[in-house]
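User: ok so my PI wants both of these folded by tonight, can you help

Assistant: No problem, let's get them done. Here's the first:
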Amino acid sequence: MTDAEKLAYLTEIINLAAIQQLPKATEHFVSDLHGEYDAFDHILRNGSGRIREKITDLFGDTLSAKEQTELCFLIYYPEELLQEKQLDDHAWQTLMEQLVTVARYTSSKYTRSKVRKALPPAFAYILEELLYQYDADFNKEAYYNAIFEQIIALDTAPLFCQELAFLIQRFVVDHLHVLGDIYDRGPAPDKIMDRLMTLPSLDIQLGNHDILWIGSYCGSLPCLANVLRIAARYGNLTLLQEGYGIDLSAAIAFSRKHYSENPAFYPRDAVDALSEEQKQDAMLLQQAFTIIQFKLEAAVIQRHPEFNMHDRLLLHLIDANRRTIHMDEDYPLINACFQTVDSKEPYRLTTDEEAVINDLMTQFHASLRLKQHLHFLAEKGTLFHLSNGNLLFHGCIPCQENGAFLPFTFGEKSYQGKELLLFFQKCMTQSLAAPHIQDDLATDMIWYLWCGEGSSLFGKKAMKTFERYFIADPATHQEQKNAYYTLREEENFCCQLLEAFGLAATGHIINGHTPVKVRKGETPIKANGRLLVIDGGLSRSYQSVTGIAGYTLLANSFGMTLAAHQSFTNRQKAIEERIDIVSQKRLVVRQSERILVAQTDIGAQLQKESTDLLTKLKQQHHQP
């Protein structure tokens, strides 16, 4: 080994050791975005309130509250706000100096190499000089002033400030965890996906609505029928038509031909934004795909007796007059729309139904933007994730009432707990690799993840879609939750669950999926702080029940903090009136000593790399 090679090894070992002594960077946890792009984008831009905290730390004594808010919003929305600015040279320089100060402060946890990689290429050299300015170094004062003066003279101050603002957003949070349900009733999950694809560091724990979309692309016809039904139910057909280029004309023509006025099926959300024709078509389409869904689901249930879902086969129990259904007792039917159900063959698709669903599946496979989004979702998405001693998943781990994992048998093999989730993940990967196959176990398992008793995403005994649509008695609508949702209140159970996934009992379980009804006194902190629920409902339809607009979680070198968010109106109003999502913070875990990189998963990886390099260096040294 040459001296130069030896020095390179030693330098890298020193570097790895030094990085481990930096403070742990900030992780941001969000969940159940439900297509609410504007609210999600704002939370991402303000770092769940972290940028405001940084500005208060830096300028609390020198800027008024109004001036601090103005600086916050300029960092959140530089594209819009910098266009408004009519500043003289002195004011531009002051603004640039403020932004450089914030950028320097937010980047202080990172190595110079990591900061350098994040810098925009056009201003990389200048920003590196400014970010690593030492305030005591009077010798360079004229040098720094000259940089600012030239930026102003060349009319690049607005662009420079914009890049600084984006850089601050990038530095304030190092890694994003998304705990599921990007898709659902909200208007713009496609925009959320576009935004997520720009982020440098994130992971996704898939939610039940995400899996519906993945299943649709993977060839699951019942998943696709559910996607269409839900889109029509919440008046969100433009997502399919404009967001993903899906032509619904054939489906609309079919629904107009076979279905009629049925007030129960008018869209529930986004009504003000829809024309009368759009409302009418959504009402007809929801009826059509409700029935198509039941027929397609029946085929999967009949293919797989091991799913134990024969109680969900209900169409054959309807009287010939279509007014009553014979279940455990006779129930009158309401909102009936069974025109295409043949009493002799109730689960057979009509020729028109088959043509419509097959056409839509072909279009799903042909949509390039949809393919890009769902492949990214599947690539980044898992059913659970282990991060820095914490267990992350969207819904639940199916359990028995005594706390033991609930076993399920698929393909002559029994699965439970962690192995069950890994099996589901394997099925998703297999199905995504062959989306043209529609009736294999792997593809059917994706639909099962949507509504099966063993699903970690569903977490209930049965999905009562039929009963909620067509039976008035609310007792039939009840969906029995898995025992997990009671057990998760107990610290001992949570500790056992952490250990079952190979983690120390001192870690935390972080959940989404179930809105926290703050209005009714519920708390997101359970099991003596061992489990945290961060779904408070970004979706506006949940906010009347929860009383807030969602929880997010921040974990940094000082501990973990829950942020409870107020409702968000829309981007334009927020910018015009400087309405922030004010976050009420609650410290969940306070560290007695600051957490260093060495105590994280990244630290463990760095230590392994350092040990491997040292071993290799010793081996090279002893070679003749």
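One down. Here's the second:
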Amino acid sequence: MKKFFQLICSFFVALAFNACVEDFKIGDKFLEKAPGVDVTQDTIFGKAEYARKFLWVCYDRMYYGLPSAWNAIDGKMNQGMFECLSDCWHSHMNWDEVSRTYYVGGYYASMEDWSTHTRFGFNREGCWEAIRSAWIFIENINKVPDMDETEKQRLAAEAKMIIVTRYFDMYRHFGGLPLVKRSVQIGDNLTVPRATVQETNDFMIGLIDEAKDYLPWSLDEVDRSNWDGRFTRAGALGLKCKILLFTASPLFNDDEPYCTEPPQDAVNNFQVWIGARKQELWNQLLVACEDFFNEVKEKGFYKLNDVGANYREKFRNAYLQRGNTEMLISTRIGYTNHGTFRNTSCPGGAFTPTQEYVEMFPMADGTPFDYEQSVVKKNMFFSENNPNAPSRDPRLYETVLVPDAAFQGHPAQMWVGGREMQQNSVTESGEYASGYGLYKFILDKTTSNGKPTIWPYLRMAEIYLTYAEALLENDRIEEAINQVDIIRQRVGLGGLRDVVLGENYSKEDVLNEILRERACELGFEDVRLFDMCRRKMEDRFRLPLHGLRVRRTDGVEEPFTSGTRPTDFTYEKFEFANRARTWWKEGGFSSKWYLTAFPPSEINKGYGLTQNPGW
């Protein structure tokens, strides 16, 4: 929103907000409220202008995926990201908690009581504050005298959607959660036990169903220019699909619980699984996806982004461009606070792409990438290493900085000794420690530096691929392939049947292609790690990861400045050793890692919170 973070501008309103919305936590501050809170609530909800501003601050509490400041919430895992726990990205930084805690196997439950840099803190991420603020809004909006009923219903629906997003943010980390269904006041009964997975799912879906009919299908052009980011009916229906996919997946929906290590209370209480594999969950997801696309067909506006002159631009605009036709839900940091992520790009090697990830991207025609063939044919990234002749999926160049890609006005010198690489891949340290660099969101560090970065919380491409998975799990395999091909066609790739699967393929083959396509299309958007967890991809967690060391065949290890640009290179895959993960060792990985731990101090309070298995 244009003035999203400038709306609480007067001292009086700021004072009223601070008094009304004290930090809400399940823990020690659960009961706190400032003196005079009842008066300030009456004041805020006594005028439409103030009530609206209160809701905008609730929006401000939504999840933003990129590390953007040095604090417990915006700094993520001390400038780390979830994706660096997946097989697609790796951290070579010695001071973020991804490498310092998780890679070495040093995470344990009691850290949740004191560390501000664990994966996702139950009491740290602003979720409960957002939920309580939104319930306060819902409970008081009807008091506003100078606001019509239609607007009240719409704003209350938006507040419900904020609650849903914050619950889903926790759900994918913890499983079943305590269900807070109203704002909590002093004297209230605080015994809010942990709900089952099914109850948590139903709670979120129920709020979506309550909200969706009061939201506009889309924002018109004027509203998009001023209010881009507000919830729509399309966003609500899309989020319903995202939630149902997570619930229907094998992590929760299987014949056996994902982890048999003690404690098992959460397993026995069905708080971390459904209790059996239930096909009806996949059926529910399929219906939700069909409802979404039926309304898209009927009401229009939403489609895969096609603005741009070429495939790369179309793809970039889909996740980065404000108000585009693909974005269903987006969040952003303040327009006056660009954040450290935008300006420092990849601090110390925090987000280095892996060779395994780069090899997921097919050739430009859509055929699978073959490393050995690419070495022989000299088309690893560009035909004959000519930067004007890209040989791979256009999304690769928009996600990963690869050798010879356009970068700051010249082909990136990613060979050992080159301008960008220097010795990074030799010492396995620094921004290009894996032989590659991060490109998505930061681009060439200058094109969009200093501009606000939108976080694509949910976009159309993800719903197409979710629909494909739902079709597949309902044994409509050919239709599932068609949905994947819609995504591939947007970047000029051939269809799966023609260039990948051939005539004889299995359901598992198609599932692997859907998951690979999700990794390529939604890279660095907080998708791959959760795909690996919900699909219980233990083999990928155990898989040692690699980088690529590129050298000039003439042996020169220095930047190219003039003369004939080098085009002959040798390639060497190397296994990460500098920041190796304990998961790669025999016995180093446990399925308990699929979900994170609750703070033991909360378990010990006795209100019905159980610890996740293994922790």
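Residues 1-39, 335-340 have pLDDT under 50 and may be disordered. Strands lie at 89-90, 327-332, 352-353, 400-401, 406-407, 410-411, 437-438, 454-459, 546-552, 569-575. Good luck tonight!
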